Structures are given as C-alpha cells and as structure tokens.
Amino acid sequence: MNPIVDETAWRAAHLDLLAREKALTRDLDRLAAERRRLPWMRVEKPYRFTGPEGETDLEGLFEGRSQLIVYHHMLKPNDQAPCPGCSMVGDHMPHLAHLHTRDVTLAFVARAPSPEIEAYKRRMGWTMPFYQSTDSFGSDLGIDGGFGLNVFLRSDAGIMRTYYTSGRGVESLGTPMTLLDITPYGRQESWEESPQGVAQGEPYSWWRRHDEYDARPSAPSAAGR
C-alpha cells in the first residue's frame, strides 16, 4: 500500500505534484507552438477515396474547410477482427461540431471497402466521415499496414501536409483541444504563440454546446498563409 498520511501531509504531496503537472502543461503549450511552425510539404499526388456518396479526392475530404485531420484506421477487407486499438480511438473522438467551428474537418480512412466501413460504423455507433483509401495514400504518408494520423492544410498554394504522429502519439488525442493543438492554426485563442496571420480570439469565447454552433461558420482569417 502507499503511505497513509494526515491531511496536511497529503496536501503538501499533492501540491508538489500539481506544480510539476502545471509545468508539463506549459511545456506542452510550447511544444504545440513549435508544431504550428513546422515546415509544410505539398501533397502532389492525386489520391482517391471512396465513401457512401461515391469517389472523391483529398480536397473532398476537407468538406470545404481549411484544415483536415485524417486518422488511418487498420480496418482491412473482410476484417473479422477489427483492430481494438483503432476502434478505441474511434470511440473517443469528440463531437465534430467543436472542430468544425474552428475550421477543422476530421475523417477516418481504411483499406476496407466502403460498404464494410459503413457496416462497421453502424456497429460502433460512429458518425465521423470514414472513407476507403484505394491507393498509396497511407504508405506514402508513413502508414504501411499500421495506424497513424496526418494533418493537412488547404491553401492557395495547394494542399500541405503539416503534421504526422503514430504509436503513443495518438493516445492523448480525443478532446477538441488536443486535436486542435495538432493543427496548423491551433485553438485560435489569443494566449497561443502562433505564426503571423493566424486569426485569434478571446479564450473560451467560441465554446458552445454542440447543437448551438452556427451550421456553417466562416473560415478564420489567415493572411499570407
């Protein structure tokens, strides 16, 4: 058993740990700021995807927004035992309205045929866009039979790849805030250190219950991006 102490000793131990937790939070904020300043890679290939509405390209996955998070799920054709880890990731994705209002689209892709993907979505109770990837999209971007996550930006100069993570880098994602922290525009709040041209507002001012957001919010200003 851990030591059993009185309230004074417990509070002292807790405050010591809390100070280190807060320091880690500030370190993560600084790391997110560095992530927003990573160089970009233009996506040159014309990748194709299949969803319930038919075929589309990578730009179609954005659904008209400027930022896109793509999770590469390991669901394969005729999969009798879909990956439990990838399925846990799907289970803890937030309501997408919170991302949409920050001009971010979240989508899943997998190698399984679209009808099998739709059947698995129904089984899991998922509502996120989920597409069949029919070419080298995954293998070209660091996913070769496994799982991972890529982030993209749609700009005047084309579609840019801005971030990638896999393994335990996916574990902490699943709230609107942790997902926004991996996007090139971030949370778009005034306290963040972001590149010049990223629109920012007061902290928390954009927060709503998910059924109270505007149906189609305008994209943030990003002059020169």
Structure description:
The protein has 225 residues and is an alpha+beta fold. It has a domain at 37-180: Glutaredoxin, CATH 3.40.30.10. Helix content is 29%, strand content 19%. It contains seven helices and eight strands, in the order H-E-E-E-H-E-H-H-E-H-E-H-E-E-H. An eight-stranded mixed beta sheet has the order 1-8-7-4-5-6-2-3. Strand 7 (148-155) and strand 8 form a beta hairpin. The radius of gyration is 20 Å and the shape is globular.
Q: What descriptors fit this protein?
A:
single chain; Glutaredoxin; 29% helix; alpha+beta; 8 strands
Describe the structure in brief:
This protein is of the alpha+beta class. It contains 7 helices and 8 strands, in the order H-E-E-E-H-E-H-H-E-H-E-H-E-E-H. An 8-stranded mixed sheet has the order 1-8-7-4-5-6-2-3.
β-strand number: 8
Number of helices: 7
Question: How much helicity do the residues have?
Answer: 25-40%
Strand content: 15-25%
**Regions with pLDDT < 50 over 5+ consecutive residues?**
none
The CATH superfamily label of the domain at 37-180 reads Glutaredoxin
Shape: globular
What is the CATH architecture term of the domain at 37-180? 3-Layer(aba) Sandwich
Q: What about the largest sheet? A: 8 strands, mixed
Query: Structural class from helices and strands?
Result: alpha+beta
Mean pLDDT reading: 93
CATH fold assignment of the domain at 37-180: Glutaredoxin
> What's the alpha carbon Rg, rounded to whole Å?
20 Å
Please identify the top-level CATH class of the domain at 37-180: Alpha Beta
